Amino acid sequence: MLSLTRLQRYYLYYTVVFLSFVFLLGVLERHGMPPRWVGYAFLVFTITMYATIGVFSRTTDVSEYYVAGRRVPAFFNGMATGADWMSAASFMGLAGTLYLSGFEGLAYVIGWTGGFVLVALLLAPYLRRFGQFTIPDFLSARYGGNEIRLVAVGAAILASFVYVVAQIYGVGVITSRFVSLQFEIGVFVGLAGILVCSFLGGMRAVTWTQVAQYLILIVAYITPVAILSYNVTGVPVPQVVYGQVLEQVTELETRLFNSPSELQVREMYHDRADMYAQKIMQLPQSLTMERDRLSAQINELKAGDTPMRDIVALERLRRELPHDPEQAKARWENEMFNAVDRSKPPVHHAEAFPGDTEEQRDAQRLNFLALIFCLTIGTASLPHVLMRYYTTPSVSQARQSVFWSLLFIIALYVTAPAYAVFAKHEVLSHLAGIPITKLPSWVAAWSKVGLVSIEDINGDGILQLAELALNPDVIVLATPEIAGMPYVVSGLVAAGALAAALSTADGLLLTITSALSHDVYYRIFRPGASTQFRLVISKSLLLVVAVLAATVAAQKPGTILSMVAWAFSIAGSAFFPALVLGIFWARATRVGAIAGMLAGLSMSLYYIMRLEFGSFSWLGLGEFPMEPWFHLQSTSAGVFGVAAGFFVNIVLSLMTKPSPQAEEFLDRIRQMGQKGGR
What we know:
By secondary structure, the protein is mainly α. It folds into 2 domains: 4-236 and 364-421 and 485-674, Sodium/glucose cotransporter (Up-down Bundle); 260-363, no CATH class. The chain has helices at 4-30, 35-56, 62-67, 74-85, 88-101, 106-130, 135-143, 147-178, 183-233, 238-257, 260-281, 285-303, 308-319, 325-343, 358-379, 383-386, 395-413, 416-430, 441-449, 475-482, 487-525, 531-553, 560-584, 590-612, 638-655, 660-674; strands at residues 452-454, 468-470. Strands 1-2 form a two-stranded antiparallel sheet. Helix 1 (4-30) crosses helix 9 (183-233). The radius of gyration is 26 Å and the shape is globular.
C-alpha cells in the first residue's frame, strides 16, 4: 500500500494533468476546434484515466475486492465517499430541483446532511467494529440465520438497483447531448466506463477511482457558477453573493409572472386542460370524433392546392392517435395534467410553502418535513454508503471518514442553491420575452434530447415563461450555454456530471454483486467456494446486473432525483429499523427484524407504485385509484415504511423469545470500541 504522502503526491499530479488538459482544450476551441470534438475529448480522456486506475488497482484478493483491504486512510475514504454520494442526482438534479421549486428543494440539502450525522452517531462505529464485508453480514450475525440475510439481500438489491438506474440514465443524458449519441446508445457507452473499475478491482479500484472522480466533479461543478457570479456581480464566490442576486430574481419574478401576456398564456393552458377533461369524459365517442375530424381535414387539404408537408403532418397525427379508449385516456390524462401544471401561477423562488389556501400550504409544509425525514433515514441506511466504512483501518478512522465526507460534500451543497439562483437570473433576464426565432442554440440542442420544450400556444412569436418547460436535470448541464460561456466549460461540466454518475454507479453495482456473490452464493449455497471462483461469480453477476440496469434506464422511467428519492425510502424502510434496534436494543429478535423489514419494504413499494405507476388491474385494484395519504408525495413513502418497520419489529420482538447470543454480540462490538479496536 502506498503511503499517504505518496498518495497525495499522485493525486496532485493527476489534478495538474487534468487542469492542463482543460486549458489545452480551451486554447484549441479558440483556434477552431468543433464543439463535438471537445465533447469527445472529455469523454475519452476521463474514461481512459479511470480505466488506467482500474487496471493498476486490479486484484484477486477477496478482502481487497470487497473492502479495499481495510487500508483506506480516513481523508481519502472521505473523498471517495463524497464522490460515491455526489451522484447524478446531487450533481444534476439538486440545483435543477432548487431552480424549479425554490425553497422546497432545500429539503434535499437538509435531509442528506442530517443523514450523515446519523451515520456518524449511530451506525458507522458499530459496523466497522463488526468488521465483515456487507450489511447483510451484520444483520445475519446480529439476529442469526440466513433468512434475514436473504431479506436484507433483496432489499439491498432493490434500493441499489433503483439508484443505479438513475445514475445510468444520467450518463445517457450527458452522452446524448455532448457527444451527439442517441440516448439509448449513450446509456450503454457510459456503462462501459462504469464496468472498467468495478469489474477489474472491486472496492479497491472503485475507491481510488472515486477519489479521482471527486477531484473532477467538484472542479466542474464550481467553475461555471463562479464565472457566472463574476459576470453578474463582479465577485467570483457565488456562495457569498447569491443572496443579492436572489433579490433581483424576486423582482424579475414579480414583474414577469403578472404580465398580461403571461396571464393570457396560463389561461389558454387552463382551457386546454378543460378540453382534455371533456374528451376523457366523452370516451369512446371523442376518440372516434377526433379520428374523423383529422380524416376530413386531410381529405380537404388533398382536394386543394396544399403543400404535401402539411398533409404528411396531419397524417402523422392521425397515425399517432391512441388505438383504443384505454390508451386515449392515459395519453389525454397526461396532456391534461401537463396543461394544468402550466396554467398554475409559478412558484416564487424565495417563497416557502406556497399555496392558495391554508390547507395547501400545510400540505406543502408536511411534504417538506416528510421528505427531510426520508432522506435523513435513507442516507443512514444505504448499503453502498455504509459499506465504505468497512474500508478504513480502524473505528476512529471510520469516524474521521464521516467528518471528511461531510466536508467534501458541503462544497457541493452550499453551491447548489447559488447555481439555481444564478441560472434562474439568466433565464428571466435574457430568455423570457424574446422572439422564439431568436432563441439561443442551446434551446434547440436540449430540445432534441427531450429535456427542454417550447410551445407558442398564443401564436405571438414571443416566449412566455409558461411556454417554456425545463426538465430539472438540464439546469446544471446547460448553465454554461445559458450564460454564453465557451463550450469547453460545458464539456468540463459534462465530465463532472459523468464522474458523479460513474462514481456512484460503481459503488451501487458493487453492493448488488457483493450481496449476490458473497451473501447468497458464498454464505448460503457454497461456503467452501474458492476465492478465485467467488470473484468469477461476482464479476459475472456484475455484467448481468449492469446490462439489466442500463436496459431499464434506456426506458426513461422518471427524473433522476425522483428515482433517487424512491431508493432512499426503500432503503430506509427496510434497513433503518432493523439496524438501529439491532444495535441499541438487545431485546430485538430475528422474527421481529424479518417481519419489520418486509413490512417496511412492502409499505414503501406499495405507496410508490400506486401513486406513480397507476393501479394494478391484475390484482383487482384497477377500479380504485389511490389518493395520497395525508397529501404526501411518493418521494416521502419512507414515512409510512419506516413507521411500519419499527412498529412490526418492536411488537413481534416483544412477542418472541430473544436470542441469547444477541447480548453477547452487542457486548463484543462495544468492548472493541472501548479497547480502541477495529
